[in-house]
Amino acid sequence: MSFFRNNLFIVTNNHRLRVIVQQKTHPQEIPVIDVGPLRDHTPSDTRAAAVSQLGQTLETVGFAYLSGHGIPAELVDGLRETAIRFHDLPEITKNGIRINTAHRGFIPYSSSTLKTSTVDNVSKPNLSDSLMIMHELSEMELRERAGQPLQGRNQWPADVPELREMALRYMTELSRLGRDITIALAEALGLLPTWFLPHFDCPTLFLRLLHYPEQERDSQHGIGAAPHTDYGFITILAQDDSGGLEVRSKDGTWIAAPPIPDTFVMNVGDILSRWSNGRFASTPHRVINRSGRRRFSQPFFFDPSMQSVIECPSSLLHAGDTPLHPPVCWGDYLMERLNRNYTYRQADGK
Question: What positions does the domain Fe2OG dioxygenase occupy (predicted)?
Fold first, then answer.
């Protein structure tokens, strides 16, 4: 185990060295954090060190690689292989489960444009298509939440029947990891470990199975995902070996975030940054598929309940300070962004 871990860090350092050379000697790097200790909520020096490292990393970089997460590699790889089978279906078949008003289903190529990006003036659509899966609701929950935003049925492809079970298992495992991280984030902020948890009684979950078609290797226009920050709390990403994810450093240069075996890439979203009064950085990032082949990734977004009010805890403010942002309802914040960024939600198609 230690030999593998040493090799992992050697690989990581090689990636960092290559990134620094490509980015003309930028000292910032994306650390690998062993989150294994966070799975045990019993206080210990090991856990305290992991919490501290996570907090410091999210304050300075906003991104981290997560190792020791306990998610089986066969589940991560199996979901990717199943997603590839879905994306290989004929377009007419995929359009049979085209995205619905509950934001579940197939999102066709070039049908989302990040108009709400605060880091770029985005006018061109993302060069990707995807299958959007959200939290699964029971029949009782569907009746109780009828008419509420984003509360509906997932759409599952009949031609890839195994995708449903695998995706739901994946979301269960990633939700467990998200909860462990949420507890650690509260501790890193000096809050009670359970401080965030009431806001996740009915979490808003997104699993997006993304496909970036092959682009010209030297293309200057093949932006798979335009520069943006994520809307929500945290994102936990599994990516294939194509590369293409880039993170913007504080001096404006772009740092590659290449895949590292048996890790996830995690980043802070806007809502967590607001909650922490800007202490945790919601860092801009983008995807450019320069691999010369298709790219597949599976971001999982772990977000609060739709009714949750996001307000900076008073204990994070020094005497005389005021919050950087007013309170906001997560559901309202989210819907404003979805309504502007997705073509299917706009009656005029703009």
Answer: 203-304
**Phi/psi-derived region of residue 40, left when phi > 0, alpha when psi is between -120 and 50, beta in every other case:** beta
Residues belonging to the chain: 350
Has residue 63 been placed in a domain? yes
The pLDDT value recorded for residue 279 is 95
Q: How many domains does the chain have?
A: 1
Question: Using alpha carbons only, what angle is made at residue 47 by residues 181 and 19, rounded to the nearest 5 degrees?
Answer: 65
Task: Give the helix ranges, DSSP H, for the chain.
Answer: 2-22, 45-60, 73-87, 91-94, 139-144, 162-188, 270-275, 330-341
Query: What CATH number is associated with residue 199?
Result: 2.60.120.330
Of the candidates 29, 70, 35, 39, the residue with the CA atom closest to the CA atom of residue 53: 35
Domain annotation covers residue 73? yes
Contact of 106 with 99, CB cutoff 8 Å:
yes
Element (H, E) at 265: strand 264-268
Q: Measuring CA to CA, how many Å separate 319 from each of 251, 258, 285?
A: 30, 42, 34
- The pLDDT, as a whole number, for residue 216 is 63
Write out the two tokens for 7.
């090799």
Q: Tell me the pLDDT of the chain averaged across its residues.
A: 87
Q: What is the distance of C-alpha 258 from the center of its chain? A: 15
pLDDT tens-place string over residues 180-229: 999 999 999 999 999 999 999 999 999 999 999 887 655 555 577 788 99
- pLDDT of the residue at 119: 55
pTM of the shown model: 0.87
User: 3-class DSSP state for residue 25?
Assistant: coil
CA 60, 62, 64, 69 torsion-angle sign? positive
Rounded-to-integer distance, Cα 122 and Cα 120, Å: 6
pLDDT for residue 6 is more than 50: no
Full residue range of the structural domain in which residue 236 is found: 30-345
Residue 65 within a domain:
yes
pLDDT of residue 14: 39
